[in-house]
Design a protein that fits this description.
single chain; about 450 residues; mainly alpha; two-stranded parallel sheet; two-stranded antiparallel ribbon; 6 strands
Length: about 450
């Protein structure tokens, strides 16, 4: 993009359909729309702008900084399919998100101008809805009574989309981004927990125990309460424990499945409580044969050999840790002018130093988004306990009785999102940030 702009500037020309000349368009990219680079990227030459309109993805975005990059959109799509009740609901949610992200006639004037201008300078792929090839990866019986981040995300996406007419596109994309950031990391942490609990069932079956029926297996593998962060506490140690447990579970599950394959080939279903229960029964039935194969010795040997991997010092565990910190943490800007760019974070540094720990503390945009989502569909006043329950669906524990005195309560007051009332629980009632959108959903 920089080369394209430079080429037109040297010839005092601009592309067909463009309104801005090369100098003004370059200033637009590198000042008005600039998204902060990380401190270790300050010497790298690439264009990075705020993802305000879809056409900006033609030349800006982390997935294009290196070859074979992981497409983040695939995770969002997978969460929508996992959290929906059925395929029609999943497809409707995915289509609604696509239509909300698209720039249409009722978008604000700057968004419409920007989409047209960037299309003139970067006539790359057109914004279009691709057919999804997702399948449901969780059994409906397991999904019915369980609570997990992907299910909460599907409901919150509807609330965020409904709020779009109440604000500018820049405000709305920030709101959407903050919800997606929290949901993505919570989903990864939840997935780590499911793996660890599945391995716990199989390890118990190896010892002759483990769950004996489907209901017990379902209650063990898909528990209703889920927590991986505590408001105000350090965040990365808890995430590291889950990533390490996930790797240990992957090791145990793979070793057990390979050992069973050597004894008696067959297919195994690990996506449902019923399938995990059947696998536990098979492990108990072949416990002596697995013992003769030396399964425990194999697990011990590999664990010792891959200690650094299991401790998240390298490999998949290290990637999970970096993903959680990068997505949830407040963006550290190489340019001090852009220090306040990110306001949708969930983790913040406790001090100014590089070694300061990351603690759970949400930015104002994240708080706005979650208060709005927690009040969607509600009629009548609600106390801060509802916000506490909403955060718990994403795995963040905060006692509603502590909100009045902690940093979250201070932020809520600063943003005008609470009313102190002696008749409300904790003395605080939530105020809808976008009343028209909340009433429309209700």
């Amino acid at each position: 993009m920089d080369k394209e702009v430079l080429w037109h500037r040297d010839r005092d020309r601009k592309p067909d359909g463009a309104v801005l000349d090369a100098d003004v368009f370059q200033a637009l990219l590198h000042s008005v729309l600039e998204s902060p680079k990380l401190p270790n990227q300050s010497a790298k030459r690439f264009v990075q702008v705020t993802p305000l309109v879809p056409q900006a993805a033609a030349f800006s975005g982390s997935a294009r900084l290196s070859a074979n990059s992981w497409p983040a959109g695939a995770l969002a799509r997978r969460m929508i399919w996992l959290g929906s009740r059925d395929r029609p609901e999943a497809e409707a949610t995915w289509k609604a998100l696509f239509e909300a992200l698209a720039v249409v006639d009722d978008d604000d004037v700057f968004a419409r101008f920007l989409q047209a201008e960037i299309r003139a300078w970067a006539p790359g792929p057109e914004w279009a809805l691709l057919p999804s090839n997702e399948d449901f990866t969780i059994d409906p019986d397991d999904q019915r009574d369980s609570s997990f981040p992907a299910r909460r995300l599907v409901g919150d996406l509807a609330a965020v989309i409904a709020a779009k007419p109440a604000m500018t596109r820049r405000q709305w994309t920030s709101l959407l981004e903050s919800v997606l950031r929290l949901a993505a990391v919570a989903h990864v942490a939840w997935t780590c927990d499911v793996h660890a609990k599945t391995w716990s069932c199989l390890r118990g079956a190896l010892d002759g125990g483990g769950p004996r029926d489907v209901d017990e297996t379902r209650a063990t593998v898909f528990p209703r309460p889920f927590q991986f962060l505590s408001y105000g506490d350090r965040a990365l140690p808890a995430m590291k424990d889950r990533a390490s447990a996930f790797l240990q579970a992957r090791l145990g599950l793979n070793a057990t499945l390979w050992a069973l394959e050597a004894i008696e080939p067959g297919q195994h279903d690990l996506s449902s409580a019923r399938g995990i229960q059947a696998l536990c029964d098979r492990v108990r039935g072949n416990a002596s044969a697995l013992e003769k194969l030396g399964l425990r010795d194999i697990l011990s040997e590999v664990s010792e050999r891959e200690t650094r991997t299991l401790l998240c010092k390298k490999g998949i565990g290290s990637n999970i840790m970096e993903f959680a910190r990068h997505v949830l943490g407040q963006r550290q800007a190489a340019n001090p002018v852009l220090r306040g760019y990110d306001q949708g974070f969930v983790l913040k540094k406790r001090g100014p130093g590089n070694g300061a720990p990351w603690v759970v503390g949400m930015g104002p945009v994240a708080i706005l988004a979650l208060v709005h989502c927690s009040l969607s569909g509600a009629s009548g006043p609600r106390s801060v306990r509802r916000l506490s329950q909403h955060l718990s669906a994403y795995g963040i524990a905060v006692d509603h009785r502590d909100i009045s005195t902690n940093d979250l309560g201070h932020q809520l007051r600063m943003l005008g999102l609470v009313l102190d009332s002696p008749d409300a629980e904790s003395g605080m009632l939530l105020v809808p940030p976008f009343p028209s959108a909340t009433q429309a959903i209700a």
